[in-house]
Amino acid sequence: MRFIPVTCEQRSEMLRTVGAETIDDLFADVPEAARPGRPLALPEEMGEVELAAHLEELAGRDAHAGTVVSFMGGGCYDHYVPAIVDAVVSKPAFFTAYTPYQPEVSQGTLQAVYEYQSMICSLTGMDVANASLYDGATAFVEAALMAARVTRRSEVVVSGAVHPEWRETLRTYAEGGALSVIDCPARGGLTDTAALRALVSGNTAAVLAASPTFYGTLDELQEMAEIAHGAGALLVAGTNPILLGVLEPPSAAGADIVVGEGQPLGSSMSFGGPGLGVFACRQEHLRQMPGRVVGRTVDVDGRTGFVLTFATREQHIRREKATSNICSNHALNALAAGVYLSAVGVEGLAGIGRACVAKAHYLEQALMGTGHFERVFDAPFANEFTLLYSGDVSAMQRALLAAGFFAGLDLGRFRSEDAGLVSFAVTEKRTRAQMDRLVAEVGAR
Amino acid sequence: MNPKDLRFDKEHEWVRVEGSTATIGISDFAQDQLGEVVYVDLPSAGDSVGAGESFGEIESVKSVSELFSPVTGSITEVNEPLRDTPETVNEDPYGEGWMIKVELAEPAEVDGLMSSEEYEAFITEDE
């Protein structure tokens, strides 16, 4: 595709029209001190062949899960994406359309989003799901804001076992003054529920937690729901949707709002984004739910059709009173999740979940067998686990990268008190041979 | 025409005063402008409300608007059936479509509201 924003002739004509002879005349009002005074340090232009080779060379410098065996998780996972996902998602009608929500012309997109919402409801056990938010972190914070609207309170208590980036996003939003955030410490890789009990009060809008936690452990959602509900607060539970074929849905534990990072459902890792903000809640709180919602209806002739509903609560209509300042969604990722779930099916999803859990437990035992690791958490885990490494984590990871492995996530990167902790994620793609080789490489150090 | 025994505010709420109790709803003009009402979010009996403060919201197929109380007081009764049949606001705005009853804390506030005739003039010039 040629991309020439403006021709020389067009530029001259525009300058003439505004009465300037040169570009410098046009910028005459910009103070001298604010101008660079020299040409920008840009490389010489390249021909197309040369440019393509240059970009390939740059791309080749990146290590990614296509060439390196990944045991890294922490919110972004190397699951298999069936070919049908890309085949459907890359159809131009889906791929190139921008906010295609006019019901007269967008029944396909609207139905696809509606199917996605329905699947998220089935997975989470909740009554309603929205058309998605940007990623797990924004869904998490939007859930906190929603809980504040529902309870008419502004204080939230967040578990220290939640992903540090989710908590950072929460703090960023809280700076605006809408929320005050209280941190509840983690203990043994789980939320310290005794501390939680003391921190939750009649001012608490929500308890914010996740299971699996950042450490991969399965947290005590049911106890947290009891603590929250006892104070008239809601429980917001983060989850990993790909595990919901084997894990109990958060609704069963009493969660009022369920959020999650939906990347595992058919989205590629793409160097960390775009993600998919999964968001589901109970019917009674429907009108406080942020984001877009697609509803099923009938037209004048009684035929089924799909429309955006509750748009009256969105920002372009309700301005500052809107349920969220996010007036968009990640429709393509939501579509990918819908196609993914349709492709793998109920049994398939459970099979993927079982494979991840079984392989993660195999790897955990094998790594313990090397003598270089220590178990620091007793809590059960699913597809991801955290161990304490006896040596220098980054030196080990550098050596393992040279051997073709992403050897887990260095949790010390996120919090100094987690120095030495490494989390390993195992997807259904990992083979026994890959795991055995990783263990051998780590063991030989 | 609007009932003569009511007082109105500029946010298109009406007030009917009986003894020290004020019944509050929205005007026929307001329901007509909103269109088909699909949801009314009401407070709970026992809550207090100040004049000019929001006591709830009303959602139509076109928009969501706040409901403002013309008077100060404590809410003694809420029209619970509206939660299930919000369309009553369209059908009978001055009767079954009432929203809350308030025990007046500042009865003099009512004197500052528009009469039926004044409200008629207000909405005519508004158009």
Instruction: Name the structural class of chain B.
Output: alpha+beta
Highest-level CATH class of the largest domain in chain A: Alpha Beta
| CATH architectural grouping of chain B | Beta Barrel
Q: Name the CATH superfamily assignment of chain B.
A: RNA polymerase II/Efflux pump adaptor protein, barrel-sandwich hybrid domain
Counting structural domains of chain A, the number is 2
Query: What count of structural domains of chain B?
Result: 1
State the helical fraction of chain B. Answer: 10-25%
Rg calculated over all Cα atoms of chain A: 25 Å
What is the fold named in CATH at topology level of the largest domain in chain A? Aspartate Aminotransferase, domain 2
CATH topology of chain B: OB fold (Dihydrolipoamide Acetyltransferase, E2P)
**What's the count of strands of chain B?**
9
Structural summary, described in words:
The complex is a heterodimer of chains A (445) and B (127). Chain A has 445 residues and is α/β, with parallel strands linked by helices. Chain A has 2 domains: 69-81 and 345-443, Aspartate Aminotransferase, domain 1 (Alpha-Beta Complex); 83-338, Type I PLP-dependent aspartate aminotransferase-like (Major domain) (Aspartate Aminotransferase, domain 2), CATH 3.40.640.10. Helix content of chain A is 37%, strand content 16%. Chain A has 14 helices and 17 strands. In chain A, α4 (83-89) runs antiparallel to α12 (331-368), α7 (136-151) packs across α8 and α12 (331-368) packs across α14. The longest helix of chain A is centred in the last third of the chain and has 38 residues, at 331-368. The radius of gyration of chain A is 25 Å and the shape is globular. Chain B is 17% helix and 35% strand. The relative contact order of chain B is 0.26. The two termini of chain B are 16 Å apart. In chain B, a hairpin with a 4-residue loop joins β1 (7-8) and β2 (13-18). Chain B has 127 residues and is an alpha+beta fold. Chain B has a single domain, classed as OB fold (Dihydrolipoamide Acetyltransferase, E2P) (Beta Barrel), CATH 2.40.50. The A-B interface holds A 287, 312-313, 317-318, 321 and B 39, 41, 59-64, 66.
